[in-house]
Design goal:
Strand content: 15-25%
Strand order of the largest sheet: 6-7-8-9-16-13-12-11
Number of helices: 14
Distance between the termini: 20 Å
Number of strands: 29
Low-confidence stretches: none
Mean pLDDT: 96
Shape: elongated
Structural class: alpha+beta
Largest sheet: 8 strands, antiparallel
């Protein structure tokens, strides 16, 4: 565990006018996060930060001093680090050394362990930005302006005093645990106080269990034949996913993973993000993977549609469009990880209804080939439904009315057809596992020949009038990832993918061919690389026997993404020609696919 310190910077400046884009330390679905203050004179971890309300509850609620607040403190920060399971800080003073370890052991509970290596006594103190303290036994509690509860609970015998939003506690023991509890959901004060007291009594056990969970996460996924550099990328990916984990809150009925807690606009769950997160989480924490899938299906409507995104407040949920149908892929990955047939049974009818929804509401001419679309008739929402929001292939797209509340693009999508065919195969497999009749088609919907351009050697979308849309994009390798390409077709597509004038860029497999006149290094889905599409490309190569090439491209991704091998966050996308970081940092689906690339790497590049 100690070998994975410093993979991510969590330095923050709570007093600044704008928040740093560094991630917070948070875990287990907590709705608060912590960081390390940029000011080294601050002797406690900064926070908690309200990840939903986007506000600091305190700049540093648990500072450590050699005297009560306001008097001279002989301690200053010597060093600090973010490890997968904890934040750590060392303070030094004359003949003094104090270590602090903070662990988020559950969705509500963080434990601060203070180890005083001198004979001098310590105090802890801090301020709430809003609210007042009330003392009950050895627990301070405050009802925050948003109605949520915050509690600080101390060991028996610790002397605690307070004045409105300020407190201080005298720590006479060499080793002390302080429990910080934040309830994002309603709870009675009586129950919260009992929970806080129990957490203090069981703090050592809770701390050990938390670290053991992370040891298991890492050890069960580490591949000894790979290099330490590769292990660190895998662990950073897991840290990214786990710090974006949010527990059920208000109208979100199950836990899930937000795209990025660093970007203020990503505080909900998105559909195809969720499917991708779940595939990786299946190998890390299958229970969380299941909840990630359940969270989206909790909002499935009566005709089968899955919302684009969902929030703690249902009024923000987006039903203007859905997202590409990869849910069955996620359910299959979870089943392969833990062989829990009950989860397949739980999801099966919902998956079938979702599958059928596409053919009822997104097949304009009823020829069995679907299009992306929208419920409000806008091209904007239809592009969102594809997930490739501003792709070049949509520059001349028009919308067509199917029926009230259902519109389609005037082009049939190659990757949507590939995804639906893959989904059909998974549903047939699930029906066989469950011993139930499959009510869908038992034969393939169509051969991928329909989308294949023999002359150009690539797959393209088609207009409803039948004309191909010869725009080279990542949709063209979807038949390889889904295993639907013929071998000659796959060989032709691979030649295009390996063309340095098209997709074999510095970081391979951009969202538009390099030689497209509309290619833009920073254009949204018009040039940068998104790691989900990179993963589909590399996994498609593996599926057709190009193992050496797949390993080579994986190595390029690992080595060339800016900051990945250092302490930079994993970003939403990157420049294909430079590897420079672009949009949202600390991005979950990027982390999920880096994790999968690590797990599927066949040979390790030269170990250092």
């Amino acid at each position: 565990m100690d070998g994975y310190g410093g993979l991510l910077r969590v330095e923050q400046q709570p007093e600044g006018s704008t928040r740093r884009t560094n991630p917070f330390y948070t875990d287990r679905g907590a709705w608060v996060g912590f960081g390390i203050h940029e000011n080294k004179t601050v002797t406690g971890f900064c926070g908690p930060y309200d990840l939903d309300g986007r506000a600091w509850l305190s700049s540093a609620l648990l500072q450590i001093g050699t005297a009560p607040a306001g008097e001279k403190n002989l301690l200053s920060r010597d060093s600090s680090c973010y490890y997968p399971d904890r934040l750590w800080m060392r303070l030094r003073g004359e003949d003094m050394e104090v270590e602090q370890t903070l662990k988020q052991v559950s969705s509500t509970t963080a434990i601060l362990h203070i180890k005083n290596k001198s004979s001098k006594e310590l105090w802890t103190y801090g301020n709430l930005n809003q609210g007042q303290w009330t003392l009950a036994g050895n627990t301070l509690w405050s009802k925050l302006p948003n109605g949520e509860l915050l509690l600080l609970s101390f060991e028996a015998g610790v002397k605690v005093t307070f004045d409105q939003g300020k407190y201080q506690a005298h720590l006479e023991k060499a080793d002390t645990e302080i429990v910080l509890i934040h309830y994002a959901n309603p709870i009675t004060l009586e129950k919260a106080l009992v929970t806080a007291k129990t957490a203090v009594e069981q703090s050592k056990t809770l701390s050990m269990q938390h670290t053991a969970r992370w040891v298991n996460y890492i050890s069960s996924n580490t591949r000894p034949e790979l290099s330490m550099e590769e292990h660190r990328i895998m662990v950073k990916s897991m840290m990214t996913l786990m710090s974006n984990w949010r527990s059920a809150k208000k109208e979100l009925k199950h836990d899930g993973v937000v795209p990025s807690h660093v970007a203020d606009y990503f505080v909900g769950f998105w559909a195809w993000d969720s499917w991708k997160h779940a595939v990786a989480l299946a190998q890390i924490d299958p229970a969380l993977a299941k909840d990630q899938v359940r969270a989206m299906f909790d909002f499935q409507d009566s005709v089968g549609m899955i919302a684009d995104c969902i929030y703690t407040d249902h009024r923000e949920n987006n039903y203007r469009d859905s997202k590409p149908p990869l849910a069955a892929w996620a359910v299959n990955a979870i089943y392969e990880a833990d062989h829990d047939l009950s989860f397949v049974r739980e999801m099966y009818d919902k998956l079938v209804l979702y599958h059928e929804w596409w053919f009822r509401y997104r097949d304009h001419n009823k020829n069995g080939i679907c299009e992306y679309g929208a419920t409000d008739g806008t091209l904007e929402a239809a592009k969102w439904e594809s997930g490739m929001d501003n792709a070049i292939r949509y520059d001349s797209t028009q919308m067509l009315l199917n029926e009230k509340g259902a519109w389609s693009m005037d082009q049939e999508s190659v990757e949507l057809s590939a995804y639906l065919e893959l989904e059909r195969k998974y549903l047939m497999h699930f029906a066989e596992l469950l011993g139930v009749p499959f009510r869908g088609k038992k034969e393939s919907y169509l051969a991928m020949d329909y989308f294949f351009d023999q002359e150009r050697g690539y797959y393209f979308d088609r207009k409803l009038n039948g004309a191909l849309i010869p725009c080279f994009g990542p949709e063209g390798w979807s038949p390889l990832w889904t295993g639907l390409a013929t071998v000659p077709q796959a060989e032709a597509v691979v030649r295009v993918m390996q063309d340095t004038a098209k997709f074999a860029s510095f970081v391979p497999f951009p969202t538009a061919a390099l030689d497209n006149a509309k290619f833009m290094d920073r254009g949204y889905w018009r040039g940068p690389i998104w790691l989900d599409q990179v993963y589909f490309a590399i996994a498609g190569l593996r599926k057709y026997g190009y193992q050496k090439e797949a390993d080579m491209y994986t190595k390029q991704v690992f080595e060339r993404l800016e900051g990945l091998s250092g302490n930079g966050p994993i970003h939403e996308n990157y420049e294909a020609r430079t590897g420079k970081r672009l949009k949202a940092p600390h991005f979950s689906w990027s982390a999920a696919h880096l994790f999968l690339l690590y797990k599927e790497l066949k040979t390790s590049p030269q170990k250092k």
